[in-house]
């Protein structure tokens, strides 16, 4: 085999080369009224997702129809082997785009043996905060950037021992020499639509093999639920194609864009006529709590984002807070249309691609609606 063809073959997983037509004959078999439910949860890394499936006697019509389950937390970095059972508590149900109707995907919270939330279960406190601020009707839209890698860890489609041409022609590009992996992106989009995930768009990004999809608008806790399920579906689609989707904020060093998860946000009063003053007030609050937000905008307290937020490649400097109209080099961007209309929303460009959306949306609400200050957070458990 010529070297170039051999390199392409080696960039995808062995499983992706299995005969999918053989699989199809089994997937078409009747289920006799039984339903396959796949439980999905966030593992001990705070970034990875895990799943396992079980059979229910009938199709669940609501999340209340899906029973709790358990798993071995010692194998997911969430418990010790001597006390390893963790609870899976179903919180949101989606249609299954891989096994099709009537089968389901179910997002779960993870509880420890004592029914307290696991360390990476950030949904638990986010839900409390969202319940407190529900009268402000917070809407979010998150722009998830990611990079496609071959199974060898090299960006998919890049030369084996080199680099593609400089950035410029790839953003929203069209053509085999400008975009890599569109089949994956379009499959993910359709799978999310089928599942009921509130995906609202996608585009090729500035670095070749880097893509973005957007989820929203979602209100309150719904934002984190839908983005996490969209991430799970992305990883499953990539599994079928034999490639890897990484959410690393800076997968390639040098003169290449990093990957973020820009977060668009508004409250009901921001969306009304004259709402710009409320947007500006929220930005002022955020400006006084920059360090706190940086700490929660990636899973490692800002260390991941320090590789990305350099003040270059359409990012702000991690050590400085800034805001501006239509400024993609600022911490906070007010879209030009919002500036002209005098109401709408703003975009926080600081969250990293591997952020936990529960942590990001909770932090924004704590600062802009609950008026918290400093680096400490308030415990609302007794309120």
TrEMBL record:
Protein's recorded name: Glutamine synthetase
Localisation per UniProt entry: Cytoplasm
Substrates-to-products reaction catalysed: L-glutamate + NH4(+) + ATP = L-glutamine + ADP + phosphate + H(+)
Predominant cellular place of this UniProt entry's protein: cytoplasm
Gene Ontology, cellular component aspect: cytoplasm
Keyword ATP-binding in annotation: yes
Enzyme Commission number(s) from the entry: 6.3.1.2
């Amino acid at each position: 085999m010529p070297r170039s063809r051999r390199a392409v073959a080696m960039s995808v997983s062995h499983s992706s080369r299995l005969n999918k037509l053989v699989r199809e004959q089994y997937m078409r078999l009747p289920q006799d009224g039984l339903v396959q439910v796949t439980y999905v949860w966030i593992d001990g890394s705070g970034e990875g997702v895990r799943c396992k499936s079980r059979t229910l006697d009938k199709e669940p019509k609501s999340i209340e129809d899906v029973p709790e389950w358990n798993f071995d937390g010692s194998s997911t970095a969430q418990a010790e082997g001597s006390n390893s059972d963790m609870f899976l508590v179903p919180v949101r149900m989606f249609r299954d785009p891989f096994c099709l109707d009537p089968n389901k995907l179910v997002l779960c919270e993870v509880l420890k043996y004592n029914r307290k939330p696991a360390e990476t279960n950030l949904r638990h406190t986010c839900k409390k905060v969202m319940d407190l601020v529900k009268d402000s009707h917070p809407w979010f839209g998150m722009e998830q950037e990611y990079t496609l890698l071959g199974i060898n860890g090299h960006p998919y489609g890049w030369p084996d021992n080199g680099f593609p041409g400089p950035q410029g022609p790839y953003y929203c590009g069209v053509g085999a020499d400008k975009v890599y992996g569109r089949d994956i992106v379009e499959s993910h989009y359709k799978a999310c639509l089928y599942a009921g995930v509130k995906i609202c768009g996608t585009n090729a990004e500035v670095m070749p093999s880097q893509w973005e999809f957007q989820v929203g608008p979602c209100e309150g806790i719904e934002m984190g639920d839908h983005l996490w399920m969209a991430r799970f579906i992305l990883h499953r689609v990539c599994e079928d194609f034999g490639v890897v989707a990484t959410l690393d904020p800076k997968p390639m060093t040098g003169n290449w864009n990093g990957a973020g998860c820009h977060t668009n946000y508004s409250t009901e009063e921001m969306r009304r006529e004259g709402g710009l003053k409320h947007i500006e007030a929220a930005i002022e609050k955020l400006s006084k709590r920059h360090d706190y937000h940086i700490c929660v905008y990636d899973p490692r307290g800002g260390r991941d984002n320090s590789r990305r937020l350099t003040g270059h490649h359409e990012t702000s400097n991690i050590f400085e807070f800034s805001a501006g109209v239509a400024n993609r080099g600022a911490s906070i961007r007010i879209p030009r249309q919002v500036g002209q209309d005098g109401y709408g929303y703003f975009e926080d460009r600081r969250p990293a691609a591997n952020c936990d959306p529960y942590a990001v949306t909770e932090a924004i609400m704590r600062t802009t609606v609950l008026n918290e200050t400093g680096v400490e957070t308030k415990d609302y458990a007794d309120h």
